[in-house]
Amino acid sequence: MAMLRRALVRCQQNLTLAGAVHSVRSPLRPQYGLLSSLSTDCGSYEVDLSNEESKRRLFNRLVYRSKQRGFLELDLVLGNWVEENIRSMDELRIKALIDVLDLENPDLWKWLTGQEQPPDAVNNNPVFNAVKSRVTENLSKHSDPATRSIPGQPWVRGWDDKRGLDGPKFGNQ
Asked: Rounded to whole angstroms, how far apart are CA atoms 64 and 83?
């Protein structure tokens, strides 16, 4: 993903230097250098909830983006949450959802599971807080606290964490 961003930024710079782009507004996001039709950073994207067809398209696009991130745990967590809550969201919360969907997968997962503290801009996002509370609730219900990371500390237990005095001598058995 980072290589794609760099290639897009280089392409945009080359076009600008060559003078090929004068009147065309750049679709590149200034913060990330990524093409995105759902970007709220560039200010040109309007969330259109005026008619049912545009609402349906927007909702389908956001559900798809939340379920097809390429990071299975986030696909499940975000996809289910968005599917359950998107129909009740207003324009501001939809823009907040778009901001959450624009975050990088590893960082978002660490922030949601409490392995790292999120930046203030992310921590003040109402959608991020709602998803994080759902993740925290599920972790509290279904897993022993000893199996989770200490807040602010990385999870260091690995596949062979049963090795020791009472564990197997070889492999993950």
From this structure: 9
